[in-house]
């Protein structure tokens, strides 16, 4: 995208993007960016608590560091990709003397933590613009879903960075600007949602095996069926109920299968799963983590 090319060309920082944390979400985002060829691998820096943390990163030529402070100071856009319970310790480990500028942006993907929470935790990053994102792990194959909300984006540099961040997530899937009061629900639905779908695919694969299909074939057809059904809804705009009816013939095989799903209360199970995850996100927003967890500086 043109704004990303311009961003890369004009960035005055050693790294265009930095990632605090080298876990699943950071890996998913970086994998997607490299797959989409949006950034050079050498323009990305990632931090971890120990060098062994980078074991699966060896095939990426990104910079690696044990110092979170280095990521913030040297990156134009920094993504905070850690568990919420270590955020206070990370902020504390950097100390008060962190060199930042208004040209830099800090993107938090912490579940349950509002922009106000993040700004309060990271008081030492006074000059940064803050953005909150809730992506999901299918970003690694450019099929993610990300919600964004921002602090006051007023300056030219902060607006430019915000547009770059939107472009990043748009390239990695879909992105929507969402009021922050919807973020707990987004977390419960799409943030945790891939796990719900994976267990459904696993169950469908088990069902295929029970009916005599080889495991690899059963899994491939189950996954492709979910992918095809999802793509149908996204590209046609059909209501899920309409699309379901198009597959369901009177007295045919599908209605018999659907009847069994309804007896198993699949709708209730999925609704309850999203509700439980949403409530957990709300609970996490009230948790105050200790400052003394060991975190690299």
Automatic annotation (TrEMBL):
Pathway: Amino-acid biosynthesis; L-proline biosynthesis; L-proline from L-glutamate 5-semialdehyde: step 1/1
Ligand binding (NADP(+)): 20-25
Enzyme class (EC, first level): oxidoreductase
Protein's GO biological process: L-proline biosynthetic process
Listed EC numbers: 1.5.1.2
Amino-acid positions noted as binding NADPH in the UniProt annotation, renumbered to this chain: 68
Domain annotation Pyrroline-5-carboxylate reductase dimerisation: ranges: 180-284
Residue stretches spanning the membrane: 12-34
SUPFAM superfamilies xref list: 6-phosphogluconate dehydrogenase C-terminal domain-like, NAD(P)-binding Rossmann-fold domains
UniProt key word NADP: yes
Record GO terms (molecular function): pyrroline-5-carboxylate reductase activity
PROSITE patterns registered for this protein in UniProt: PROKAR_LIPOPROTEIN
Residue ranges of domain Pyrroline-5-carboxylate reductase catalytic N-terminal in the record: 17-112
InterPro entries per UniProt: 6-PGluconate_DH-like_C_sf, NAD(P)-bd_dom_sf, P5C_Rdtase_cat_N, P5CR_dimer, Pyrroline-COOH_reductase
Keywords: Amino-acid biosynthesis, Membrane, NADP, Oxidoreductase, Proline biosynthesis, Transmembrane, Transmembrane helix
PANTHER family: PYRROLINE-5-CARBOXYLATE REDUCTASE
Protein family: Belongs to the pyrroline-5-carboxylate reductase family.
Xref: HAMAP family: P5C_reductase
Protein name per its UniProtKB record: pyrroline-5-carboxylate reductase
Organism (species): Clunio marinus
Highest classification ranks of the organism: Eukaryota, Metazoa, Ecdysozoa, Arthropoda, Hexapoda
């Amino acid at each position: 995208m043109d704004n990303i090319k311009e961003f890369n060309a004009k960035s005055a920082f050693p790294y265009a993007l930095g990632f605090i944390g080298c876990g699943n979400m950071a890996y998913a985002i970086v994998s997607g960016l490299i797959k989409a060829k949006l950034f050079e691998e050498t323009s990305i820096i990632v931090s971890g608590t120990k060098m062994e943390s980078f074991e699966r990163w060896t095939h990426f030529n990104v910079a690696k560091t044990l110092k979170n402070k280095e990521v913030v100071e040297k990156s134009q856009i920094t993504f905070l990709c850690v568990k919420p319970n270590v955020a206070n310790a990370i902020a504390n480990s950097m100390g008060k003397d962190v060199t930042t500028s208004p040209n830099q942006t800090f993107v938090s993907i912490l579940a349950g933590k509002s922009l106000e929470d993040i700004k309060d935790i990271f008081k030492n990053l006074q000059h940064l613009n803050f953005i909150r994102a809730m992506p999901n792990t299918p970003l690694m194959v450019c099929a993610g879903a990300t919600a964004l909300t921002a602090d006051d984006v007023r300056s030219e540099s902060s607006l430019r960075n915000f547009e770059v961040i939107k472009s990043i997530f748009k390239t990695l899937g879909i992105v929507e600007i969402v009021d922050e009061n919807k973020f707990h629900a987004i977390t419960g639905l799409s943030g945790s949602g891939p796990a719900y779908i994976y267990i459904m695919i696993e169950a469908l694969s088990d069902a295929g095996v029970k009916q005599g299909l080889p495991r690899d074939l059963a899994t491939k057809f189950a996954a492709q069926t979910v992918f095809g059904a999802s793509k149908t809804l996204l590209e046609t705009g059909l209501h899920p109920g309409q699309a379901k009816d198009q597959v369901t013939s009177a007295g045919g095989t599908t209605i018999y299968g659907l009847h069994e799903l309804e007896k198993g209360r699949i709708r209730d199970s999925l609704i309850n799963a999203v509700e439980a995850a949403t409530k957990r996100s709300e609970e996490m927003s009230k948790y105050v983590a200790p400052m003394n967890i060991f975190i690299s500086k």
